[in-house]
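Hi support team,

I submitted a single chain yesterday and got back a structure, but I'm not sure I'm reading the token output correctly. Could someone confirm the output below corresponds to the sequence I sent? I've pasted both exactly as they appear in my results page.

Thanks,
R.
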Amino acid sequence: MQPSHGNSSTNDALGALLTAFACESGTLHAVASDGALHLRAASGIPASVLDIVRIVPVGKGMAGLAAERKQPVSTCNLQTDSTGDISPSAKATGLGGSVCVPLLSADGSVRGTLGVGCRAERVFTKDEEARLMVAGAALLQAIA
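Hi R., thanks for writing in. Yes, this is the structure output for that exact sequence:
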């Protein structure tokens, strides 16, 4: 596992967020001028997966679908998910329960996404998803 990607203060903030939500892994993406999601921070993600998620098109994988739908995309176990929402590369993380939430501006436009995951199976509650959206938006705002 690569411990982190991004600058130290952003990674520290992402790490604190992961601890608060009892997760082992996370990614923070921001929408760039090209319209794609660009990785701003990561923790607990294998290097081989980092290469794949550095730039994510809207509509592709959990992050891209969360951005496209403006709704959380989740699975109780990445390894056994059969919804079609999970990209094959996500299984390389070794994670179980995972959720990716859109980070929205005041006008409802997508500014980025926050993805978190656990080794064990886990279902994230609607309350946890809402809290992740708030925490992720604050983190993205702090690094913008």
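A quick pointer for reading it: Strands lie at 2-5, 25-31, 37-45, 55-56, 73-75, 98-104, 110-117. Let us know if anything else looks off.

Best,
Support desk
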